[in-house]
Amino acid sequence: MTEKFNQIENKLINLFNEFVNEVDEKKIYGDRLWTKELKKRIAKLGLDEKYQVATSGFKDTYEPEWLFDLTWYSEDDFKRLKKLHLVVESEWDRKYSGIKYDFEKLLIAKADLKLLICQSSHDNLNELFLKFEDAINAFSNTKGDRYLFAVLDSDSERKFYFKTH
User: Fold this and answer.
1) CB 86 within 8 A of CB 46
2) How confident is the model over 97-155, as pLDDT tens digits?
3) How far is CA 87 from CA 9, 53, 113, in A?
4) Cα 61 vs. chain centroid, distance in angstroms?
5) Does residue 1 sit within a domain?
């Protein structure tokens, strides 16, 4: 069965695929640089989509990070938080036990889309996706929530796999 991604998800997927194609050319090596570069690109997409952005690492460009690694949000005319459009958590640990804490933050978020960026060996991809599904189903307040999982195949380090819930 083929995944059905919405317009924003497709833009995010294209962003990830472009990123891995540029890793060698731009010498983007190591978890910290990967995180910073992906956040930079996701933040720019948020601005392109006319959202406000909060994330760390870009002091003079975006609002500081709060609660999540990166957030797209909107405010009303009185600067009151109106809506979360995207919340992002990333964790480069290869084991579910290392990813679990960051992933569970997404369970409690009220946002149009929740994005988790992580990595796993190719052999464990399906097991990881099943653990995410089980955790979502076990949490009582997830009805209608939309998740996008971007999982780097840590065996190749050049391919992301995407799945929605």
Assistant:
1) yes
2) 999 999 999 999 999 999 999 999 999 999 999 999 999 999 988 788 999 999 999 98
3) 13, 10, 7
4) 20
5) no
For the full predicted model, state whether its pTM sits above 0.85.
Answer: yes
Asked if 56 contacts 64 with a C-beta cutoff of 8 angstroms, the reply is yes
Q: What is the CATH number of the domain that holds 28?
A: 3.40.91
State the Cα–Cα distance between residues 46 and 29, nearest whole angstrom: 24
- Give the domain range for residue 104: 7-164
Alpha-carbon distance of 125 to 161, in angstroms, equals 8
Q: Is residue 15 a part of any domain in this protein?
A: yes
**Strand positions, DSSP E, the chain:** 52-55, 70-75, 81-90, 113-120, 147-153, 160-164
| 53 within domain boundaries | yes
39-77 as b/e, with b when 16 or more CB fall inside 10 Å?
bbbbbebbeeeebbbbbebbeeebeeeeebbbbbbeeee
Continuous segment of H or E residues that includes residue 133? helix 125-138
Q: Would you say residue 11 lies in a domain? A: yes
**Structural domains in the chain (count):** 1
CA neighbor of 119 nearest in space, from 24, 20, 21, 43: 20
